[in-house]
Amino acid sequence: MSIKTIRYKDQLDAIQMTYQTGQVTLSLSGGHILSFQLEGEERLWMSPKAHLETGKSIRGGIPVCWPWFGAHPSDESKPAHGFARTSMWTLVDAQDHEDFASVTLGLENSVANPLFPHDCSLALKVTLTDKLSVELITTNLGSQPIEITQALHTYLPISDLDRATIVGLEGVEYADKLKGFTRATEIRQKVDLKTPTDRVYFDDSNGLILSDENRETHIYKQNSATTVVWNPGRETAANMSDIGEENYRGFLCIEAANAMDDKICIEPGESFTLRQGIT
Hints:
mainly beta, Beta-galactosidase, Chain A, domain 5, 9-stranded antiparallel beta sheet
């Protein structure tokens, strides 16, 4: 295992962790996982047009949505998906074991933060074995309960939308954001995203499979009762400066989340861990 500081794409300071045939690159800006390579193959998607600047949200990899997912529940002037993805994190720990390697980043929050005035801390623990495991750990350091929603907004590469399907969502109820959050039940055994899709599946299972020609990506999660599936489609992507019409067909987002009805209440002195893995 090795850990070193690098310049990611000559634009952003980052930490790179290597273990056996795997490599993970993380940015302290946003606590953002920029890259996960296994046996030389990239397993996360990064937009060619991503804005790789300190303090800016990054389109691709695994952004951290915290302490709320989507729009703020009561104040639309606050940033979508919270502020963790644009905040500066610190390196808390790095471990090298025979069977795994891990890096932990930390983000402190306090009553001085007007966006979320609660005494709490957030940690992102990234563990590398023959797969990538990500843990997002919120600890309530205050004297009152706190409530959060959150997600690991994972971008996964595909060769093309026409050839990619998700297995494991059949029979699951979902809310469709593009139809006013109306609810329905998924009837497809293999879910494809040939049209713009923004759905919250009420799914607490531990395993989805993204199939794409000769490649399969297995996604698992824990302590999550919602899975977000998203692709903006052509028209929306064309109006997004960090995606563009020419790039939207190359990825799907499959996100371990605590969203909508799946709000998390954390009592004083307690912690909550959201987990997602990719292999």
